């Protein structure tokens, strides 16, 4: 799996957009970018994923650069409940489909 | 919305005892996983399971661990003789079918404390 690099921590003001960056410079053409988050040792929660096009759902937007070497997860209006560890994961086709978690970014949303 | 459910949510066991952690994956999912997270550390892959057999396991998943799908709905992780270092949160996960664009969904975890 391609490795990802994320800042260890970030702060965001409540109500503002949270932009979480991720570098994946060694990503291959068939590898998807996934974002999960983990709130206080709960189970990892799926947020969004994409291959090359930008994606949006009810939780977030995912912006992938044209060269696919980096991406940004955007939480448009962060709330205190969005305080969590956010994981950017790149996954290739495999015979198991497993995900490999890194250290992630701890996002602290402040009032 | 369908979800992965795990029991128990918390278990305390004596060192050397056997523990079984149970999971009910999302209905119609075919791929199943166990992960663990030691307090303060990252989420680690343990094992993947498909078609009633292990498809991949990590170095952590040694002979003390086993997995089973005893019926059409449950997926279990057994630790034969627990050690102090097995204290962790254990997450079960499932996925519908194999595709790199397909999503893995996680349960809320079972917190195991070995004393």
In short:
The complex is a heterodimer of chains A (111) and B (115). With 111 residues, chain A is mainly beta.
* N-end to C-end Cα span of chain A: 37 Å
Helix and strand sequence of chain B: EEEEEEEEEEE
- Radius of gyration of chain B over alpha carbons? 13 Å
Instruction: Provide the helix percentage of chain B.
Output: under 10%
Shape of chain B: globular
Low-confidence stretches of chain B: none
Q: Residue-averaged pLDDT of chain B, rounded?
A: 95
Can you count the helices of chain B?
0
* Strand-pairing-aware structural class of chain A: mainly beta
- How many runs of DSSP E, i.e. beta strands of chain B? 11
Q: What is Rg of chain A?
A: 13 Å
Query: Order of SSEs of chain A, N→C?
Result: EEEEEEEEE
Mean pLDDT of chain A: 94
- SS-derived structural category of chain B: mainly beta
Total number of helices of chain A: 0
Structural summary, described in words:
The complex is a heterodimer of chains A (111) and B (115). Chain A has 111 residues and is mostly beta strands. Chain A is 0% helix and 45% strand. Chain A contains no helices and nine strands. In chain A, the strands form two sheets. A five-stranded mixed sheet of chain A has the order 1-9-8-3-4, with no helix packed on it. A four-stranded antiparallel sheet of chain A has the order 2-7-6-5, with no helix packed on it. Chain A is globular, with a radius of gyration of 13 Å. The termini of chain A are far apart. The model of chain A has no long low-confidence stretch (mean pLDDT 94). Chain B is mainly β and 115 residues long. Chain B is built from no helices and eleven strands. In chain B, the strands form two sheets. In chain B, strands 2, 4, 5, 6, 9, 10 and 11 form a seven-stranded mixed sheet that branches. Chain B has a four-stranded antiparallel sheet with strand order 1-3-8-7, with no helix packed on it. In chain B, a hairpin with an 8-residue loop joins strand 9 (88-95) and strand 10. Chain B starts with a strand and ends with a strand. The model of chain B has no long low-confidence stretch (mean pLDDT 95).
């Amino acid at each position: 799996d391609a490795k990802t690099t994320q800042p260890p921590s970030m702060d965001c003001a409540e109500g503002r957009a949270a932009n979480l960056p991720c570098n994946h410079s060694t990503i291959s053409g068939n590898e998807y970018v996934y974002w999960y988050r983990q709130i206080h040792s709960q189970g990892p929660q799926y947020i969004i994923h994409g291959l090359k096009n930008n994606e949006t759902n009810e939780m977030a937007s995912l912006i992938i650069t044209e060269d696919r070497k980096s991406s940004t997860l955007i939480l448009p209006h962060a709330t205190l409940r969005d305080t969590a560890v956010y994981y950017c994961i790149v996954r290739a086709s495999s015979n198991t489909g497993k995900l490999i978690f890194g250290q992630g970014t701890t996002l602290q949303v402040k009032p | 919305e369908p979800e992965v459910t795990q029991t128990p949510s918390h278990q305390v066991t004596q060192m050397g005892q056997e523990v079984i952690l149970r999971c009910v994956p999302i209905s119609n999912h075919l791929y199943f996983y166990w992960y663990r997270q030691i307090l303060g550390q990252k989420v680690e892959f343990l094992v993947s399971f498909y078609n009633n057999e292990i498809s991949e396991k990590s170095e952590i998943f040694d002979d003390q661990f086993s997995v089973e799908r005893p019926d059409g709905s449950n997926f279990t992780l057994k630790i034969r003789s627990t050690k102090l270092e097995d204290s962790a949160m254990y997450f079960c996960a499932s996925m519908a079918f194999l595709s790199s664009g397909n999503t893995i969904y996680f349960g809320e975890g079972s917190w195991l404390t070995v004393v």
